[in-house]
Amino acid sequence: MSHVVLRGVGKRYPNSQRFAVRNINLELARGEFLTLVGPSGCGKSTTLRMIAGLEEITEGDLYIAGRRANDLPPKDRNIAMVFQSYALFPHMTVAANIVFGLKVKGVPPAERQRKLEWACELLDLKGLEHRRPAELSGGQRQRVALGRALVLEPEVLLLDEPLSNLDAKLRLRMRTELKNLHRKLGLTVIYVTHDQAEAMTLSDRIAVYDNGRIVQVGTPEEVYYDPVNRFVAGFIGAPPMNFFDGWLEGGAFVTGGVRVPLGHGLQPPREPAGAVTLGVRPEDLTPVYEETPGALPGRVAFIERLGSDDYLVVEVAGILAQARVPAGTRVESGRPVWLVPRPGRVYWFAGDEEGRRLR
Amino acid sequence: MKRIRLGWALGLAVALFMILFPLYILFKYSIADRASIVTGGRYPEPLWPFAPTFEMYRYLVSRGDFWAAGVTSVRIALYTVALSLTLGAPAAYALARYRFAGYGVLIFTLLSLRLFPDIATVIPVVERFYKPPLNALPVEVQVALAHTLLSLPYVIFMSIGVFQGIPKDLEEQAAILGCSRLYTFTRILLPVAAPGLAAGAIYTFLLSWNEFIFAYYLTFTNPEGATLPVYLLRVMAWTPQKNLLAALAVVISVPVILFSFLVQKYMQAGLTAGAVK
């Protein structure tokens, strides 16, 4: 049996008609790093809190390490959690914070000391043991919170947006450190974030949430290269995928009054379709400056410079689309341009609200 | 800009004057010699005594009944603080964390206890203390209980805000780490709330220390339990000199200032600093 199993798990709050999350099915292998990702209010934190035992499970079953955990109090689930706010105890020193859980569980002092030293070594907290949380930097607080969780040697480590309170630079560093820790300790981790970049870089697998449901579970490559619907395609990847709403008609894609003959890179879906959305990622669009079959015609609006890459912003049929270009590219705005999609990297979605992927 | 500052300074000066002038008068009288207060209308009272003396203080300190009343007052005030916080802090925590039917009514009822003037409630309350089982309690405990009745609504009301200011994450983290609710309350919440609760403690100490009516009625058949305000009345009963009364008034104020300074140490800013973010 998998290490953590959620089977048809749902949550409805006592004075609400609607389920906040429903029909959550997930299985985690031991040592796996799974990320729950989605926009705020999509139910990913609720799922995590149900696993932690901070929210009651309304329906479905939760198994942790082979035991049904639905009705176990948090302390008996063999989990540890790091909150977005870190939730350090402000009146205790770093050392007292880290060993607090061990003390409550009645671990003898010698053992506590050993674990404390192990954690401080691992998380680079040596020399800070006697400080209080208020005297620490954001990154240090983050590491204390991690240490407090790790010394418990939990079956599952739950992380609720642990990096979102850090500044951009520190966030990147802690991201690397987290990945490293996961590898070194073989931890089973469930990680909640709204940042798709964190999900992509950290995870073995990603569960993408939308509106209280999981819409896709897969490896980072799977959700990136093989999204099941328009929402996943748009949520994963930065800058986001370009979308063009239109319809297929007589061997052409019509969008905003522009008729683009199909062919070359622009192959239609095999299944029949009328109203569709065309999706192409910025790195899969190449600008050329003469009329080309199967290319989307437009005019250069401006260039967004990121340093390592530049993005050419092109107005296509009233929509601003982005195409990745080599850094330092110079084009005057207003110049006619044709965007050539890379063969095999063109996505079609149903033109309705659900936006199912058409293959 | 300048005019605003001038206005502020003026306001501050007036406020300071209003606070300090009576204190000055009080202190001046307490160290006055006889000629400085008994002028017989032949010359105005001096701004500073002709021959300052601590004679009245020496006299007070030499009296056994003064010391007895002082010790009683301190003890009753400390009992009251302990009782108010022991009862008030858990109540405030429950009111801060849980919403239930009748919540608003309960809060209003709590505060409305203090809408009645003390003089109106003293008789029914004291009557209870004259009857069993409360009359079996030591008189100091009786007075402390009565004072707790007065302070508790305020203590609860002030402490609700304190507990609401503590992030829920701390409790949830404690639960995950294996703490029971009681352990979380005593080891995590109370220490974090302490600076905020200290304000309630100061208020309660002051209230008990100053309180007169309940203490008077409860101790009137039992002079052993007389607090300093009651003692002050007894001294006034034989119309003593102004300077003795002033000295007594100054002495009564001192412990309040001491207690406030002591507890204020805990009232630093940033009570949950470092807990979150």
Report on the structure:
The complex is a heterodimer of chains A (359) and B (277). Chain A is α+β, with helices and mostly antiparallel strands and 359 residues long. Helices cover 23% and strands 34% of the residues of chain A. Chain A contains eight helices and 21 strands. A six-stranded mixed beta sheet of chain A has the order 6-7-8-3-9-10, sandwiched between helices. In chain A, strands 13-12-11-14-20-21 form a six-stranded antiparallel beta sheet. In chain A, α5 links the parallel β7 (156-160) and β8. In chain A, α2 packs parallel to α4 (138-150). The model of chain A has no long low-confidence stretch (mean pLDDT 92). Chain B has 277 residues and is an all-alpha fold. Chain B folds into two domains: 1-53, no CATH class; 63-264, MetI-like (MetI-like fold, Orthogonal Bundle), CATH 1.10.3720.10. Chain B has helices spanning 2-30, 34-37, 55-61, 64-97, 103-112, 118-130, 139-164, 168-176, 181-210, 213-219, 228-237, 242-264. The longest helix of chain B has 34 residues, at 64-97. The radius of gyration of chain B is 23 Å and the shape is globular. The model of chain B is unreliable at 269-277 (pLDDT under 50). Chain A binds chain B through residues 52-54, 73-75, 79-81, 83, 85-91, 100-101, 104-105, 132-136, 138, 141, 148, 152, 165, and chain B through 167, 169-170, 172-173, 175-179, 183, 188, 191-192, 270-277.
Please outline what is shown here:
Chain A has 359 residues and is an alpha+beta fold. Chain A contains eight helices and 21 strands. The radius of gyration of chain A is 24 Å and the shape is elongated.
